[in-house]
Design goal:
407 residues, alpha/beta, TIM Barrel, 8-stranded parallel beta barrel, 3-stranded antiparallel sheet, 36% helix, globular
Length: 407
Amino acid sequence: MGRDVLASRPGPWRLRAGKTAALGIAATLAACGGGDGARDPADIRRVKLTGARRLVLDGARVLDDGAPIVLRGVNVEGVTEAEAVDLAGLGFNLVRLRISWEGDVRDDDDPTGLSARARADVDAWVAALVAQRVWTVLELRTDDETANDAALYTVGSATFRAYARVWQYLAWRYANTPYIAGYGLLAEPSPDKTELSEPRAALVAFHAALMSTITDDVGDTVTPFFLGPMFNYDTLQYRFDEYYTAHAARRGRLFYAVNLLMPKPWIQDGTAPDGSRPAYPLTPGPVSFDALLVPDEGEAPDALERIFNHRREEPENFAKLLGPSFAEWYLSWAIDFASRHDVPLYVDQFGAPVEARGQLEFERDLIATFARHGLHWARWSYNAGQASRKVVGNEAVRALYADVLGR
């Protein structure tokens, strides 16, 4: 089937692309290849696309079978068949499926980069979601030590090659599986925490190389890429246009993500930085947020992320964050970026614990803000992390989302 492009790549990726098949969960996954297939270099093949159902990105519009769709979902860390039925029944049409390349999931001695158990788990999760026709973002992440290491973002390094092999496998495995919304290339990248002299440029090159190996080497030319800026998808980083301009040739496959994990620590445990437990909305009316970006003496005025992160903890400023106008201001950089480049944007994490006073009103206001700007979203979380931030087990939260989603 043409040139042996994968064999020319560093790393022992040795998989055979199997025959293709039509719909059917087990058949579809089996037809995508088979992670335990032959591993002789002569068996390496580019995947042959068979037209599996995919989202189409038409500028900022997202289309499903020609009709506009707003993706409204949740984060999951694994999902059972019963959970997939439940979240679809609540009305969620998107899942951000976190695949953690760390611990016993990571296997650098295996050509796929993943352990056999991890591959089987992801197959089962994807099958459960496809059965419910829930769109799935395969979101790859790694441990903090790796994510904060310059080697990950250095194209050609051993760490980068190992990470790229995982994406080669995932794209090969699921290229012909329906309802794959896209590939989340690296959850919350942080080259800013490394010793790299140009971390933003390194991240752009990192994303470009991953998109190239998925497109040119594996042969998946249609599935969207979900990506975002450094500082863990921080909205303020969207003031830099190179996150789009460097990838403009991929137009029609670029879907951008932004985090909204603010205000901390209220969204973590319901407290303010001083330990009090304020109720939302603490500042219900419009306010000015200019003070949040005023540098201290000697502080670089363009270091907006760092300025914001210490200014937001000041009592007079923190009070402003607990109001409905904060999300409009905070997301404005990402929204402007999406508007400038006519690309879709989604808030990939947001939400608060049940201990946070006014939590339900807070989340309802956020969703209203997303709707005003045509943003897609995925709440943190359905079944991952601390119990009080889940949909599972929190009936008031379930009721909120059933209402929001019209169920």
